[in-house]
Design a protein that fits this description.
Blueprint: H1 2-38, H2 43-110
Length: 111
């Protein structure tokens, strides 16, 4: 009975082994591709290189995030400066109108 059960499962086992072999070959090909691209042949050196690059990328990401924050602050500050310039220009226009009115009044008084 056990032999019969084992014979019934052999095609399924063979199919599973084939899938495992294909998966293993895909992993081998991917690893070889990584070796070629990274110019590293040893796993330890690949891991060290990857870790170093990951740390560098994270540091760059943090730096960019910091710069982005500074840019936002500068944009807000620029908006405030532009608003202040606009207000000062309006104030100057009003003062010029008052000055012109004062000059016209003085001219009338002097004539």
């Amino acid at each position: 009975m056990t032999t019969l059960l084992l014979c019934d499962r052999q095609p399924a086992i063979r199919a599973a082994l084939e899938v495992d072999k294909r998966t293993l070959n895909q992993f081998k090909e991917a690893f070889e591709c990584i070796q070629e691209v990274s110019d590293e042949k040893e796993v330890d050196s690949m891991v060290k290189s990857f870790s170093a690059k990951e740390a560098e990328n994270f540091a760059l990401f943090n730096y960019i995030t910091e710069l982005d924050g500074q840019i936002e602050e500068l944009h807000e500050e620029l908006g405030l400066v532009r608003k202040e310039i606009s207000e000062l220009q309006k104030q100057e226009e009003e003062e010029m109108k008052e000055h012109d009115q004062t000059m016209a009044t003085l001219e009338v008084c002097l004539s």
